[in-house]
Amino acid sequence: MTRLLLRLSALVIALFAASVASAIEVKTAVLRVDYPEVLPISRFDLKPADLGFAGAQLATEDNRTTGGFLGHTYETEMVAAPPDGADAAMQRILDAGIRLIVVIAKAGDLLRLTDLAEGSGALVFNASAPEVSLRDDQCRGNLLHIAPSSSMETDAVAQFAMWKQWDTWLLVEGSNEPDQLLAQSFRRSAKKFGAKVVSERVFEDTGGTRRTDSGHVLVQRQLPVFMQRTDEHDVVMAADRTDYFARYLPYHLWMPRPVMGSAGLRPVTMHGAHEAWGATQFHNRFEDITSRYMTPIDYNTWLALRVVGEAVTRANTAEAEGVKDYALSDAFELAAFKGQKVTFRDWNGQLRQPILLFDGSITVSVSPQEGYLHQVSPLDTLGLDRPESKCTAFN
């Protein structure tokens, strides 16, 4: 009897020691840079105060649910800073010993913050910046991209247009640099999938028109005349990253045509009405803690922290280098409520993921479209493929 008790005691001690040894404290942070912005065209597009942070809250709860069985604990610090305070905010996060950081910022600030974090061995997740250059010649080895690139978005739209046999496009772009970069992506997508841009227009942003009723009326009156004298086309592609004019296009065209891109049918990572593949329960949980619908930024932030949680669970490490190595490995995959598991491109740190095509009410379609094939994954038909990317930071 005594021997049995000793053996049981030894087993309990061994199990306790094993659980202590596997216990991992996971500290993450979300840094959101808040920029001064004019009001959006629609009140429906006003940014919530907890933008991104709400997604982080849900992801942390999800990670705790899984991690609790393994002795893992999760804590997420959420920091909002103005552009001139972003560096100091990042430094405070690093000084607190946090090395897994989600950043919601424009491209220039994102790169600077990523470079600042590199010296501390931190891994950064991009949750918002779409610039193709970040995945190309300006890539960083400690930066993983959850947000899709502009080329992924425009390829998703282009595939649907070509599936519908809408292969002649009128491209309308804004005059601001983000709009022009998006327009470049549309041109690349047209060439990539065999569409033809038969006509182009540039809508000048004169500033301030979104703020007044007279401004709304002015844009609405300008557009029909602005859209006259175009070559025959199947669809209007709108490149309006700065949200100046595109929302008015669908019902203010000279020739009635479908609108896609920045208005009409839009490419998004997630939206609150998406219900397929278990997303209804996902949204219910988000809405229970926020009392609002999920935005793409919330989803991107949630997904970034779930990447961390999956890596910690599977690779049993919360070290930045270990999380990165596992995320980029063939072993990594993560369910994302979009019909297939998502993985990373190991040559530039971009997350492969389906793109939802959203008309403001429902998911109309999901790209990649059926019939677009790739030797690695159909998801690699969206955005820069390995031979196209100039990124060398992951070699």
Mind explaining what this structure looks like?
With 395 residues, the protein is α/β, with parallel strands linked by helices. It folds into two domains: 23-148 and 271-355, Rossmann fold; 151-267, Rossmann fold, CATH 3.40.50. The chain has helices at 2-22, 53-67, 86-95, 107-118, 150-163, 177-193, 213-226, 279-290, 296-315, 320-327; strands spanning 24-33, 72-81, 100-104, 123-126, 143-145, 168-174, 196-203, 235-239, 259-261, 266-268, 343-344, 351-352, 355-358, 363-367. It has a five-stranded parallel sheet, sandwiched between helices. A four-stranded parallel sheet has the order 7-6-8-9, covered by helices on one side. The longest helix has 21 residues, at 2-22. The radius of gyration is 23 Å and the shape is globular. The N and C termini lie far apart (61 Å).
Low-confidence stretches: 8-21
- Overall geometry comes to globular
Range of helix content: 25-40%
Q: Give the N-to-C terminal Cα separation.
A: 61 Å
> Which strand order does the major sheet show?
2-1-3-4-5
CATH class of the largest domain: Alpha Beta
Strand content: 15-25%
Short description:
The protein is of the alpha/beta class and 395 residues long. It is built from ten helices and 14 strands.
